[in-house]
Amino acid sequence: MKHHIVVLGAGYAGAYAAGNLARGLSPADTAITVVNAEPDFVERLRLHQLAAGRTLASKKLADVFAGTAIGLRVARVTALDPDRRTVTVADSGGGAELGYDTLLYTLGSHVADHGVAGVREHAFNVAARPSALRLRDRLDALGTAGKALIVGDGLTGIETATELAESRPGLSVTLLARGELGARLSLRARGHLRRACTRLGVTVVEHAEVTAVEADRVRCADGSVHACDATVWAAGFTVGPIAAAGGLDVTADGRIIVDRVMRSVSHEDVYAAGDSVHAIGDNGLPMPMSCGSAGYTARQAVNAIMGRLTGGRIDETALAYSGNHITLGRRDAILQSVDAQARATPRYVGGRAAALVKEGINRVSLWTVSHPTFGLPTRTRRTTQEQPVAGAGGVSA
Hints:
Layout: E1 3-8, H1 12-24, E2 30-36, E3 40-41, H2 47-52, E4 59-60, H3 61-64, E5 70-74, E6 76-81, E7 86-91, E8 94-99, E9 102-105, E10 110-111, H4 119-122, H5 129-142, E11 147-151, H6 155-167, E12 172-176, H7 187-200, E13 202-205, E14 210-214, E15 217-220, E16 225-227, E17 230-233, E18 237-238, H8 242-245, E19 256-257, E20 270-272, E21 277-278, H9 291-310, E22 314-315, E23 323-327, E24 333-338, E25 344-350, H10 352-370, E26 394-395
Parallel strand pairs: 1-2, 1-9, 2-5, 9-20, 11-12, 11-17, 12-13, 19-21
Antiparallel strand pairs: 3-4, 6-7, 7-8, 10-18, 14-15, 15-16, 22-26, 23-24, 24-25
């Protein structure tokens, strides 16, 4: 009987991992199923651009996985039972239960409302394609006028505010920052960010703690009220409850606790990658939720799964956090490097050169995910009942 690998989620981490597992493991004795709620691969890094009005070509997952032995199940994951090694999914035809031998959990994250009243009812976001399209429709309805309020001054909030301001010049854009704008950036990079906001006409309100979102305004802890036609919530991300409800060991915020090779510390047949995982980086700090972290953790999970199944050495992939890449519209960006403790260094790159680098990163990320058959080996590795052995630069499962 074939060893069944189930991958939950086909974002940057899941789609990349599934493609690499299909490249490296023989279909003669392994079967891979990917479960994803949507039929398309979603470029989450570009959803703020989609909301601003840009056209993004969608990639059908069926086309992405064509030519591989990967089976695609378009369905929503509703439950996980790691003791029975089953996953419950739901689609238009109803519910079903999938069994697995090895599970890779990459369900990602969604917007965190932090308990603020009215966020779910009244705010838009760019965390998923449907919500980004709803925001675009709302902005289209406003025509050449209107006021958009962006709550949150993290990377998503900054990128959304600057993209909307540049792409929709008639729109009034205000960015509400909980603290100082760009506090995680170096002094010079913060200056660059402020100049970009000024150039694009983005109004910045600092030290604004939002306590309620209403249909046409937001209220702050200091008593101030900010009127708007569309509130965009970009105040952080969180994970869903499925892993915790299933009994996996998770952090207080629900992320799966893993060892160095992305294997669940509570269930040996479960691996995790991307935003869903609580992984400790090479600097001793938790890896941040980001596309870069998704790539590193997915690569490590693939190495671990393949090593365990084939009896080979499990090489340790670098778990690095090199810095932040922030787009400021289409022709400007900031590349901020960080030190070993994830603190901003004085060195940064800004302007058109930084924008081209960020665009290159986006393109490479999409190409890597959407070409899983590239370099498909003529000889894949067969599974074995033997356990992998530790080697130089590797660890035992």
